[in-house]
Design brief:
It is built from 12 helices and 20 strands. The protein has 422 residues and is an alpha+beta fold. The strands form 5 sheets. The chain has a 9-stranded antiparallel β-sheet with strand order 5-6-7-17-13-20-11-10-8, with helices on one face. A 5-stranded antiparallel β-sheet has the order 9-12-18-15-16, covered by helices on one side. A two-stranded antiparallel sheet has the order 1-2. A hairpin with a 1-residue loop joins strand 5 and strand 6. The longest helix has 22 residues. The two termini are 52 Å apart. InterPro entries: Oxoglu/Fe-dep_dioxygenase_dom, P4HA-like, Pro_4_hyd_alph, Pro_4_hyd_alph_FE2OG_OXY, TPR-like_helical_dom_sf. One of its GO terms (cellular component) is endoplasmic reticulum. Pfam families: 2OG-FeII_Oxy_3.
Length: 422
């Protein structure tokens, strides 16, 4: 339940939703679950606990209003056949909500209203522990500085837009659509270059609905578990940084996965086999499911990572396929490239995690926006550097772009460029 409450707080924060509207079941004009006064109070209490004080103020203000209306209608007591007049509990919940509201107001710098709340409460119940805590904090707790860096702000703005891609301009005519061929000239897929620096492109209709369902079925048969974050191989842990369920699907365990690996190799001209890439990662996101800003590459060569780096190198590229449409939310945002891709079933996003000179490209930092309505399924393939050392080399010039390397790669690094894509 705590996780569910945090999900609603996340939706509020990222999409600038109002708790009063969420309580009515209004989520960006989509119909969602309505919330009771006690639901709203408990969400506000969770927001306070995880130090989301501005959000806590909004939830708790709404809770106090809703509880006050309930008491006005039903009264603080109700008559029962067996026990006579008993308390509905609304008054106690209201007092708790008011004290948490006062404590939240203190932390956002509104001492005046926090003090007013305390004075209105202390005359009725001076022995209440929560009221006493509020009184103590009025003397000892000041404003809590709540900072939000520009990257996070940009990420939120991109999520709210749902979809935003760069338009081709005279300054960079390489941002365009083209065909990617597979074996036969007429067997081709549409590719749209969304960004050249960092290099990000989108492939259209790379998987059928039938294969997408097979991937989901094969993954469910293996079993999905709560996604973890991993600073190193030996200390994985669950975190609100990433809220999803995942599994890994190898080519040996799924014909659909093996077929997909071959297709990725054809589309990217990289080796995506098990010798040069990780098994497919399948991920399912529910309500509020997200993955905060991160890079796919491993940044620290810790002792437990040494064998991985020596045998496989690092993750040089990512090929991410959407297995479902998402009605609202769930986009993939790249603040460094100022673009966000809306999840569309069958489409794929592809990017290189290294610059042409072999350095980590921090502009590929990306995130999965929280899901508002529906659920999101993806499958991604991480392609390694060592398995593609000679397939895709560094740029031959200091200012080479990924597209420059691509031309050299298609020619076999002979200098005779073959036209592979239109």
């Amino acid at each position: 339940m705590e996780g569910a409450r945090e999900s609603l707080i996340r939706l509020q924060e990222v999409y600038n939703l109002q708790p009063r509207e969420m309580a009515k079941g209004n989520y960006l004009n989509y119909k969602g679950p309505e919330l009771s006064a006690s639901d709203v109070y408990l969400i506000g209490k969770t927001a306070f606990t995880i130090e989301k004080y501005p959000q806590a103020v909004q939830w708790l203000t709404t809770a106090v209003d809703l509880m006050s209306k309930d008491i006005a209608i039903t009264g603080p007591y109700v008559e029962t056949p067996s026990f006579g007049m008993i308390s509905t509990g609304n008054t106690a919940f209201l007092t708790d909500a008011q004290t948490y509201l006062g404590r939240s107001l203190l932390r956002v710098g509104d001492q005046e209203n926090a003090r007013k709340l305390y004075m209105s409460l202390v005359t009725d119940d001076i022995e209440n522990k929560n009221i006493q805590t509020l009184g103590y904090e009025l003397k000892s707790v000041g404003t809590v500085e709540i900072g939000q860096n520009q990257v996070i702000t940009k990420f939120y703005n991109l999520c709210q837009q749902q979809s935003k891609t760069s338009e081709p301009t005279s300054m960079d005519s390489r941002l365009r659509c083209r065909f990617a061929y597979i074996l036969l000239p007429y067997y081709r897929f549409h590719e749209e270059i969304l960004s050249n620096t960092p290099y990000i492109s989108m492939f259209y209709d790379v998987i059928t609905s039938t294969d997408a369902e097979r991937i989901k079925k094969d993954s469910s048969a293996i079993g999905l578990t709560r996604g973890k974050i991993s600073p190193g191989l030996l200390n994985e842990t669950t975190s609100s940084f990433r809220t999803s369920h995942v599994t890994f699907l190898s080519d040996e365990k799924s014909e659909a996965a093996a077929f997909l690996s071959r297709r990725i190799s054809y589309l990217t001209h990289l080796d995506a086999s098990k010798q040069a890439a990780e098994p497919h990662q399948v991920v399912n996101y529910g309500l509020g499911g997200h993955y905060a800003l991160h890079l796919d590459v491993f940044l620290e060569e810790r002792a437990e990572m040494k064998a991985r780096f020596e045998n496989y190198g690092n993750r040089m590229a990512t090929f991410l396929i959407y297995l479902t449409d998402v009605e609202r939310g769930g986009s993939t945002a790249f603040p460094g490239a100022d673009l966000v891709v809306s999840p569309t079933k069958g489409n794929a996003v592809f990017w290189y995690s290294f610059t042409p000179d072999g350095e980590i490209d921090h502009l590929t930092e990306h995130a999965g926006c929280p899901v508002v309505i529906g659920e999101k399924w993806i499958i991604n393939k991480w392609i390694w550097t060592y398995g593609n050392t000679f397939t895709r080399r560094c740029g031959l010039k200091p200012n080479a772009s990924q597209l420059d390397i691509e031309r050299e790669m298609y020619s076999g690094y002979t200098g005779k460029h073959k036209k592979q894509r239109d």
